[in-house]
Amino acid sequence: MVLVDGRAVAVVSTYFVSAALRLHSLAELTEFRCPRCDRHQECALLGSAGEELLCPGCFGQCGVDGKALARTEGL
Ligand SMILES: [Zn+2]
C-alpha cells in the first residue's frame, strides 16, 4: 500500500468490512497524517474508505465497531 506522501508500507492483512470500507493491519508502526482529523499519528492499523486512508479513530466513525469487524474476520 502507498501512503498519500508516496511512502510504501507493508500490509500484513486486510479486512473487508464493507464494499467501500477496509481495515489494513500494517507490518510496522507507520507515521501517518489522517486527512479527516488532520492529525499526525503512529498507527499499526489504517482504515480506508474508498480511496481515502483514515486513522482508526476516523475509520470507526464510518460506522465500524468491534462487532462488525469480528463478523468480517469470521467469514
Ligand atoms: Zn483521523
Question: Would you write up a description of this structure?
Answer:
The structure is a single chain. With 75 residues, the chain is an alpha+beta fold. The protein has one domain. The protein has two helices and four strands; from the N terminus they run E-E-E-E-H-H. The chain starts with 10 loop residues before the first strand and ends with a helix. The mean pLDDT is 85. Zinc ion binds next to helix 1. Zinc ion (ZN) binds next to helix 1.
Q: What is the spatial order of strands in the main beta sheet?
A: 1-2-3-4
Distance between the termini: 23 Å
Unreliable runs, pLDDT <50, ≥5 residues?
none
User: Any idea what the shape is?
Assistant: globular
Major beta sheet summary: 4 strands, antiparallel
- Rg from alpha-carbon coordinates: 12 Å
In short:
This protein has 75 residues and is α+β, with helices and mostly antiparallel strands. The chain has helices spanning 56-60, 66-74; strands at 11-16, 21-33, 40-49, 52-54. The chain has one domain (11-74).
Helices and strands in order, then pairings?
Elements: E1 11-16, E2 21-33, E3 40-49, E4 52-54, H1 56-60, H2 66-74
Antiparallel strand pairs: 1-2, 2-3, 3-4
The chain binds zinc ion.
Zinc ion (ZN) binds next to helix 1.
Features:
19% helix; 75 residues; alpha+beta; 2 helices; 4-stranded antiparallel beta sheet; binds zinc ion
